[in-house]
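Protein modeling request. Please complete all fields; requests missing the sequence field cannot be processed.
Requester role: graduate student
Desired output: 3D structure, token encoding
Chains: 1
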Amino acid sequence: MDLDEVVDTIRTGPRGPNIGAFFDFDGTLVHGFSGVPFFRHFVRAGRLTPREIAGTMLSGIRGGKSEQDFARFIDLALSGWAGHTEAELETIGNQLFQKRIAGHLYPEAWRLIRAHEAAGHTLVIASSATRFQIEPAARALGIDNILCTPLEVVDGVLTGKVAGSALWRHGKAVATKEFAEAHGIDLPRSHTYSNGGEDVEFLSLVERPVAVNPDSHLATEAKTRGWPTLRFKPRRSPGPVTAARTIAAIGGFAGAVVVGAGTGVVSRDSSRGRDRVIAHTGDYTLAMAGIDVRVVGEHNAREPRPAVFAFNHQSELDMFVLAKVLRDGFTGITKKELASNPLLGPVLRYMGATFVDRSNTAAAKEALRPVVDTLRGGLSIVIAPEGTRSITPSLGEFKKGAFHIAMQAGVPIIPVVIRNAGELRWRNGTAIRSGTVEVAVLDPIDVSDWSADDLNDRVAAVRQLFLDTLLDWPRA
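Delivered output (476 residues):
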């Protein structure tokens, strides 16, 4: 069974909050083990002795077959946490999520979560990990309920020990049943997802469990029991091939700028040169990076023009994707910090981009005034209503600037929904991975009858279009 089939099953199945969707965390929602960044943090901080480091690594390699084995492993792993306050661990957890863990969240899992959310299901993460590992991801994914291994705290300070039992194997199944009973969840008709063989009991609580990225034990159990299996693309560390592609993409970008700008100089037509830069940067950069672009609604990228093209922003790749899809006849609005970027700054200035200080609302509004004239002069604008890149596939709140501009210039808003760009070039990553970016250019939205009185509702409706498209991707 593939992901689309599982999502269709969710959509056509029972709805409402009495249906639960219970997700394991490590290996199911996030690639790898979220405890590793914490372990490395405390090793670097000198909070673990060489003996503790060796013991933890040896215990992890050997694995465990019982709750007692796992308890010994987690006691070793948590020994470096002793003496820290809960507030300190929360800060460390948030920092590690931003820098590392967010980049390992599976976009496929995000789709599952959104499908369950749309069906009104109660979302729960059930994991042997601690709340400090899980909570930042849960907030980003929109999951309010967490079942996790409790830690012992004395006077607000962690002792480095587990308080009671870890949520592993039988403990996770028991905690899930107790949560279901306390919240009126119809457990048999609910959904469970996990990757580990230790979670067979947890998965068996429902009639429709799904094995996600199963280990060898769970793969055998799933096959024997007829459970559906999903495989998500692993988020491995960049290798030499990825590094080479990243360097090649930078070279492709530079070459595209030279060729395009050269056309403008030779022809003595600066607008032609800018259009060539746009088209070439999209084509050359993505080709050298090994990235394909699959477009739905391509006719909407051609007309009507001029227009305000509003896109969801996840990656530095977005500008190249937009260049490939839109081809010519547009400029952009971007953060002022890029003006000083030695690679992008000169190119963006040549393209006539508007640089906005996002920290100064008054200055930002003033900087956007000339953009209305740009649109009235026939040049389209691309802008990200979120204002900044997201570190997860989640869609941020929309600011109103793009919509005010369209209303004042009397041009339509055209939503451009981008999927997978953040997976290929994560916001806090350094490498570009090969793959396919999917783009849906939606139908133009006429803003001629919009007013300041109904703008909040109008903007919310456009944002919902993005959410609906990301959840139910249109077919070509």
